[in-house]
């Protein structure tokens, strides 16, 4: 029987203790960062977090995007505390706050007629594909190179692929059955002709198309004006289900998600991240006839369950977050800072003579170190200089400015960030890029691709 006293020396670091009892010392593969193996977070508030040495970082990583209001937002924290004093997880029936949240989702997101809550975005996308197959009786799913939709087998492939693995199945994990991979068709993002050809060949067998309307898991690939409409037309013509994975774009880019920006309404939408400012909750919503197929409605053929679905504390966090997004100038603030960052970075790279493409949308920004115009597909991103991308971010961290030092990862602005934070970002970026160029990437022991291929 394990004892609460480990017997380890008091001088042993938290990171070392973590590695002795947790594989790799972290609870997600995306947190295992070369050069930051000993990073231990002790405090987070507003636009900053602190490590166990007392060093403070201005956080532009923002946990891949959830804390849109900033860390430990006081209004969200107060709502969670109130819920904790009022009701606990009972696992039966429904609470008024769950109903409130579903009503808000129906009100805000164009595609959502009914909604269900999950604990993660991955669960939401899993259920979306399951119900699409139940509704259509079909086998195939279409996804796009560079899009990430969670950890489950049907979509765990072709995210950040090495050049030689683009154009064929590139699973991000071992242990996936070959027949599951074979049921997923992978297409280039923004390639309308490939979509039409695929539906001409396989339309009768395609249950669903799932897409990040903006593939932010490879930084930022903006859709061409007609691409999403082509998906809508193809799926309607062939009776397939169109799923927008708005786990990232939902609420961060618009209260109605990218579907309201684009004017293209999918059949199902999945949500997460910014919905609750960092608390673990996801959601799936869409057409009532599809949502009524879940077993939350007696007789529904698509099984749906989860002990922590609709847990009071996380629901309270979501309601408080969405209330603040609706009532305060959050998007005005974060879009203003995001626009300022992108413009200033373009000027900076032009001034120092570094070929770079600065892109993003609203509160998201990313720099690709490459020549040419704004990239439209993952294949375009293969020209990015990974050594410079990762190298300057490693040097940013040393300067107390945190952008995740992994290949192709985006950065975020929150409501808590200020113009002073942006000033520091720009100053540190100049220093970090020039220093990286001076050493020509020799300190970068390879470029970490945490969603690359697995040899089977």
UniProtKB/TrEMBL annotation:
Is Isomerase set as a keyword in this record?
Answer: yes
Reading the lineage from the top rank, the first entry is Bacteria
Catalysed reactions, semicolon-separated: (S)-4-amino-5-oxopentanoate = 5-aminolevulinate
Example GO BP: porphyrin-containing compound biosynthetic process
Q: Region Disordered: list its residue ranges.
A: 1-30
Instruction: Kindly list the GO molecular function terms attached to this UniProt entry.
Output: glutamate-1-semialdehyde 2,1-aminomutase activity; pyridoxal phosphate binding; transaminase activity
Q: Which UniProt keywords apply?
A: Isomerase, Porphyrin biosynthesis, Pyridoxal phosphate
**Which spans are transmembrane here?**
none
Which EC number(s) are documented for this chain? 5.4.3.8
Q: Where is the composition biased (Polar residues)?
A: 1-14
Q: Which pathway does the protein contribute to? A: Porphyrin-containing compound metabolism; protoporphyrin-IX biosynthesis; 5-aminolevulinate from L-glutamyl-tRNA(Glu): step 2/2
Q: What class of enzyme is it?
A: isomerase
Cofactor(s) named in the record: pyridoxal 5'-phosphate
Q: Which family does it belong to?
A: Belongs to the class-III pyridoxal-phosphate-dependent aminotransferase family. HemL subfamily.
Instruction: Please give the name of this protein.
Output: glutamate-1-semialdehyde 2,1-aminomutase
- Source species: Actinopolymorpha singaporensis
Output the lineage of the source organism: Bacteria, Bacillati, Actinomycetota, Actinomycetes, Propionibacteriales
